[in-house]
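Work package 3, deliverable 3.1, input record:
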Amino acid sequence: MRTHKHLSVFDVVGPAMIGPSSSHTAGAARLANLARRLLQGPPRRARFTLYGSLASTYRGHGTDLALTAGSLGLAPDDERLRHAASLAKEAELAVEIVSEPRPEGLIHPNLVRIELFNAQDAVNVMGASLGGGKVEIYELDGFPVRLLGDEYTLVIHSQDRVGVLTSVTNLISEADANIGNMAVSRMRRGKSVIMCIELDAPLPECALEKLRAQPDIKKLTVVEGLRGGVG
Amino acid sequence: MDSLSELLHEAKAQGHTLGQMAVLYEAESSFCTPETAIKQMMIHLDTMEAAIDKGLDTPLPSVSGQSGGDAQRLSRQNPRLLGTMAHQAMVYALATMEVNASMGRIVAAPTAGSCGIVPGVLFAVARSGDYTREQMVQALFAAAAVGQVIGQNATLSGAQGGCQAECGSAAAMAAAAVVELVGGSPDAALEASAMALKNTLGLACDPVAGLVEIPCIKRNALCALLSLGAAEMALAGITSAIPVDEVIGAMDSVGRSLPAELKETAGGGLAQTPRGRHIARSLYGEPKE
């Protein structure tokens, strides 16, 4: 588990969540909810590949229900979570669970790959449930990233070219928005990059339009924040 | 908040309770107003109470079918050995943990596996007297102050420190909360925390089949008793020979020394007893390593 430079009192008393396990239930719901926000629409098909401890004990913890509920857009403290299987049927979401209890080279004991699909788009993330309901996504569509999903975040797929980063940050500062955290990752030089930019406040629609109009930006995803404690 | 002794020093200098200090800390570090922080804690208090009521009024079996109904069983029995308050604390802790095990809504305090202790003790004490919701919220902030320092300087995760990090921390948090609630000093609150945490050092996290049920549910109820006992001693002026920050340090080092089998892996302790293994087999159809 990563060390937090700042632990809120609401990380200690809170967050509110659906049990039984903050890592195997609430964290799983949060990870799938984050994947759903990245997809930006209702998925029609979901595949969850569980590794390590999540794989060996998911039935008793309702991890499968939590993942299904999250991909339907339910929050980790939504009491409908236990009915996720029937909600998925209503929403025409097909769910597949793959269990890999003993994979090679596990980077975290509670790891899950979430793949969501609909007619327009697909999202493929690998994330870990860190305990206490906290999560982190390590991989997005094959790119190494670090996505927490607590704060309003822009995820930008763009061409890897000189000046792209500057034009993005300029447009953000023109909108008077403050960047709280930013990470850029790429697969190969000169190909494509993913930028994850956490902002202190949402960008206005006009600023988002300007960003989308940039020729090098291939895809802009606005991930609304889902706070664990306050709010 | 770097240490509890520092927090205590500040609290005394400013004439504040631990709860008030935690409100100020949260407002400053999370860029919110004290009122916002208090409002959020009030929501948690309501959620805690709803879980207690739900566990007692409409109990459900756990997802695995291994637990449920004990809160109601204990509450229907007139206590023969315990006082009313201690009996209620156990009932409320069981109720909260059973709601958790049945995929109900709880507040992690500090985790889901230890979510019964703080509300169990707090509501038992609060309902025994004339306490306002605002006082209960302040008590929760006192609990949070203690948990926050434990989390920062040691760990609150069973996977890292064993059950002492979860239920032990919760007992320390609850003890401080009720000392402040009944009007004890910040000094006394932290002495209570130290005594509660000391008594859980070395506690293994050995859940049967890896689930937050056996022994977690009953352990929450018994840690609620421990909390009340520590608070009672502190209110009588009894102090811990080892200062609270050093107890937290000891908990951290004991946690590091515990083998992985006793840190939430279901690889040892109760999980690996013949009955524990039998239960795991009946749920998963194969032995858990």
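The mean pLDDT of chain A is 90.
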